[in-house]
Protein backbone atom coordinates (compact mmCIF):
# COMPACT_ATOMS: atom_id res chain seq x y z
CA UNK A 1 0.00 0.00 0.00
CA UNK A 2 0.97 3.60 -0.51
CA UNK A 3 2.25 5.63 2.46
CA UNK A 4 2.85 9.26 1.48
CA UNK A 5 3.96 10.34 4.97
CA UNK A 6 6.61 7.64 5.25
CA UNK A 7 7.90 8.47 1.77
CA UNK A 8 8.23 12.15 2.75
CA UNK A 9 10.12 11.07 5.88
CA UNK A 10 12.45 8.98 3.70
CA UNK A 11 12.99 11.90 1.31
CA UNK A 12 13.85 14.12 4.26
CA UNK A 13 16.35 11.61 5.69
CA UNK A 14 17.94 10.87 2.32
CA UNK A 15 18.34 14.56 1.43
CA UNK A 16 21.20 14.73 3.91
CA UNK A 17 22.91 17.98 4.76
CA UNK A 18 22.80 19.35 1.22
CA UNK A 19 19.41 20.98 1.75
CA UNK A 20 18.11 23.51 4.27
CA UNK A 21 14.39 23.11 3.61
CA UNK A 22 11.94 20.67 2.07
CA UNK A 23 8.95 21.01 -0.23
CA UNK A 24 6.25 18.44 0.47
CA UNK A 25 4.69 18.59 -2.98
CA UNK A 26 1.88 16.43 -4.37
CA UNK A 27 2.85 15.24 -7.84
CA UNK A 28 -0.67 15.78 -9.18
CA UNK A 29 -0.88 19.46 -8.19
CA UNK A 30 0.73 21.78 -10.71
CA UNK A 31 1.17 25.49 -9.96
CA UNK A 32 -0.20 27.80 -12.66
CA UNK A 33 0.62 31.16 -11.08
CA UNK A 34 4.25 32.33 -11.34
CA UNK A 35 3.75 34.61 -8.31
CA UNK A 36 3.68 31.62 -5.94
CA UNK A 37 6.60 31.71 -3.53
CA UNK A 38 8.74 28.58 -3.17
CA UNK A 39 11.48 30.42 -1.29
CA UNK A 40 13.09 29.53 2.02
CA UNK A 41 10.31 29.41 4.69
CA UNK A 42 12.30 31.29 7.32
CA UNK A 43 9.31 32.48 9.35
CA UNK A 44 7.83 28.98 9.70
CA UNK A 45 5.94 26.39 7.64
CA UNK A 46 4.63 27.98 4.44
CA UNK A 47 1.54 26.40 2.87
CA UNK A 48 1.79 27.23 -0.84
CA UNK A 49 -1.44 25.33 -1.70
CA UNK A 50 -3.55 27.12 0.90
CA UNK A 51 -7.29 26.41 1.24
CA UNK A 52 -8.11 29.70 -0.53
CA UNK A 53 -6.17 28.52 -3.60
CA UNK A 54 -6.45 24.72 -3.71
CA UNK A 55 -9.02 23.49 -6.25
CA UNK A 56 -10.46 20.78 -3.94
CA UNK A 57 -9.67 21.29 -0.26
CA UNK A 58 -10.94 24.42 1.47
CA UNK A 59 -10.92 23.73 5.23
CA UNK A 60 -8.78 26.01 7.37
CA UNK A 61 -6.60 23.28 8.95
CA UNK A 62 -5.63 21.86 5.53
CA UNK A 63 -1.83 21.75 5.02
CA UNK A 64 -1.59 19.27 2.13
CA UNK A 65 -0.76 19.77 -1.51
CA UNK A 66 2.38 21.89 -1.20
CA UNK A 67 3.99 22.73 2.14
CA UNK A 68 7.48 24.18 2.66
CA UNK A 69 9.36 23.63 5.95
CA UNK A 70 12.87 24.21 7.16
CA UNK A 71 14.64 21.00 8.08
CA UNK A 72 14.74 22.24 11.69
CA UNK A 73 10.95 22.71 11.77
CA UNK A 74 10.35 19.27 10.22
CA UNK A 75 12.58 17.72 12.90
CA UNK A 76 10.69 19.63 15.62
CA UNK A 77 7.56 17.77 14.45
CA UNK A 78 9.44 14.43 14.25
CA UNK A 79 8.37 14.37 10.62
CA UNK A 80 5.09 12.78 9.69
CA UNK A 81 3.38 9.73 11.19
CA UNK A 82 4.17 6.41 9.51
CA UNK A 83 0.78 4.97 10.50
CA UNK A 84 -1.16 6.26 7.47
CA UNK A 85 -1.31 3.54 4.82
CA UNK A 86 -3.54 4.29 1.87
CA UNK A 87 -4.70 7.70 0.77
CA UNK A 88 -5.55 10.56 3.08
CA UNK A 89 -5.54 11.83 6.67
CA UNK A 90 -1.74 12.10 7.08
CA UNK A 91 -1.83 15.85 6.35
CA UNK A 92 -4.53 16.42 8.97
CA UNK A 93 -2.43 14.63 11.60
CA UNK A 94 0.64 16.61 10.50
CA UNK A 95 -1.25 19.89 11.08
CA UNK A 96 -1.69 18.82 14.71
CA UNK A 97 2.05 18.03 14.91
CA UNK A 98 2.90 21.49 13.58
CA UNK A 99 0.67 23.13 16.20
CA UNK A 100 2.05 20.84 18.93
CA UNK A 101 5.57 22.00 18.04
CA UNK A 102 4.47 25.62 18.57
CA UNK A 103 4.80 26.52 14.89
CA UNK A 104 2.50 28.85 12.96
CA UNK A 105 1.48 27.98 9.38
CA UNK A 106 1.82 30.91 6.98
CA UNK A 107 0.04 31.15 3.65
CA UNK A 108 0.38 33.20 0.44
CA UNK A 109 -1.12 36.66 0.23
CA UNK A 110 -1.87 38.76 -2.82
CA UNK A 111 -2.57 35.79 -5.10
CA UNK A 112 -5.67 36.70 -7.11
CA UNK A 113 -6.14 33.51 -9.16
CA UNK A 114 -8.19 31.76 -6.44
CA UNK A 115 -9.11 28.16 -7.21
CA UNK A 116 -7.51 28.54 -10.66
CA UNK A 117 -4.02 28.82 -9.07
CA UNK A 118 -3.30 25.10 -9.53
CA UNK A 119 -4.17 22.37 -11.96
CA UNK A 120 -5.12 19.17 -10.18
CA UNK A 121 -4.32 16.26 -12.48
CA UNK A 122 -5.88 13.42 -10.55
CA UNK A 123 -8.47 11.46 -12.50
CA UNK A 124 -10.15 8.89 -10.21
CA UNK A 125 -11.58 7.00 -13.21
CA UNK A 126 -8.08 6.44 -14.62
CA UNK A 127 -6.11 5.90 -11.40
CA UNK A 128 -8.08 5.02 -8.30
CA UNK A 129 -6.72 6.06 -4.90
CA UNK A 130 -6.15 3.50 -2.19
CA UNK A 131 -8.88 4.67 0.20
CA UNK A 132 -9.62 1.39 1.93
CA UNK A 133 -9.83 1.64 5.74
CA UNK A 134 -9.04 -1.67 7.42
CA UNK A 135 -9.70 -2.82 11.01
CA UNK A 136 -8.57 -0.29 13.63
CA UNK A 137 -7.30 2.11 10.96
CA UNK A 138 -10.65 3.91 11.09
CA UNK A 139 -10.09 4.91 14.73
CA UNK A 140 -6.34 5.53 14.35
CA UNK A 141 -6.77 8.09 11.58
CA UNK A 142 -8.11 10.70 14.02
CA UNK A 143 -5.43 10.27 16.71
CA UNK A 144 -2.13 12.11 17.01
CA UNK A 145 0.79 9.70 16.72
CA UNK A 146 3.08 10.90 19.51
CA UNK A 147 5.55 8.02 19.09
CA UNK A 148 6.37 7.65 15.41
CA UNK A 149 7.79 9.69 12.58
CA UNK A 150 11.35 10.36 11.49
CA UNK A 151 12.62 8.36 14.44
CA UNK A 152 11.08 5.05 13.37
CA UNK A 153 10.49 5.00 9.60
CA UNK A 154 11.87 1.74 8.23
CA UNK A 155 12.74 1.33 4.57
CA UNK A 156 15.15 0.00 1.98
CA UNK A 157 16.41 1.82 -1.09
CA UNK A 158 15.83 -0.48 -4.05
CA UNK A 159 17.51 1.87 -6.55
CA UNK A 160 18.78 5.42 -7.12
CA UNK A 161 18.53 7.16 -10.48
CA UNK A 162 20.28 10.46 -11.13
CA UNK A 163 18.66 12.74 -13.68
CA UNK A 164 18.24 16.39 -14.58
CA UNK A 165 14.96 18.30 -14.70
CA UNK A 166 15.25 21.65 -16.53
CA UNK A 167 18.94 21.63 -15.72
CA UNK A 168 18.49 20.94 -12.00
CA UNK A 169 20.08 17.73 -10.69
CA UNK A 170 17.59 15.27 -9.18
CA UNK A 171 17.75 11.83 -7.65
CA UNK A 172 14.82 9.45 -7.96
CA UNK A 173 14.67 6.84 -5.20
CA UNK A 174 12.78 3.58 -5.51
CA UNK A 175 11.79 2.85 -1.90
CA UNK A 176 10.51 -0.31 -0.26
CA UNK A 177 8.73 0.60 2.98
CA UNK A 178 8.65 -1.83 5.87
CA UNK A 179 5.14 -3.03 6.67
CA UNK A 180 4.99 -4.05 10.33
CA UNK A 181 1.64 -5.83 10.62
CA UNK A 182 1.89 -5.99 14.41
CA UNK A 183 2.08 -2.17 14.55
CA UNK A 184 -0.21 -1.30 11.61
CA UNK A 185 -2.16 -4.37 10.46
CA UNK A 186 -3.74 -2.21 7.75
CA UNK A 187 -0.43 -1.85 5.85
CA UNK A 188 -1.45 -4.86 3.73
CA UNK A 189 -4.74 -5.65 2.01
UniProtKB/TrEMBL annotation:
Residues 45-120 form the Galactosyltransferase C-terminal domain. Its main location: Golgi. GO terms for molecular function: metal ion binding; xylosylprotein 4-beta-galactosyltransferase activity. One of its GO terms (cellular component) is Golgi membrane. Keywords: Glycoprotein, Glycosyltransferase, Golgi apparatus, Manganese, Membrane, Metal-binding, Signal-anchor, Transferase, Transmembrane, Transmembrane helix. Pathway: Protein modification; protein glycosylation. The keyword Methyltransferase does not apply. GO terms for biological process: carbohydrate metabolic process; glycosaminoglycan biosynthetic process; proteoglycan biosynthetic process. It is found in: Golgi apparatus membrane. InterPro entries: Galactosyl_T, Galactosyl_T_C, Nucleotide-diphossugar_trans. Its cofactor is Mn(2+). It catalyses: 3-O-(beta-D-xylosyl)-L-seryl-[protein] + UDP-alpha-D-galactose = 3-O-(beta-D-galactosyl-(1->4)-beta-D-xylosyl)-L-seryl-[protein] + UDP + H(+). The keyword Calcium does not apply. Pfam families: Glyco_transf_7C. Its EC number is 2.4.1.133. It is a single-pass type II membrane protein. Required for the biosynthesis of the tetrasaccharide linkage region of proteoglycans, especially for small proteoglycans in skin fibroblasts. Belongs to the glycosyltransferase 7 family. This is Beta-1,4-galactosyltransferase 7. It comes from Opisthocomus hoazin.
Amino acid sequence: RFNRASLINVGFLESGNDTDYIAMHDVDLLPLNEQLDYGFPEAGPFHVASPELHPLYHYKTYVGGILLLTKQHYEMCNGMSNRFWGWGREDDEFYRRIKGAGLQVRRPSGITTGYETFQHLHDPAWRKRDQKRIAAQKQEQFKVDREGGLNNVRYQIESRTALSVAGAPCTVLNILLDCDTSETPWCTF
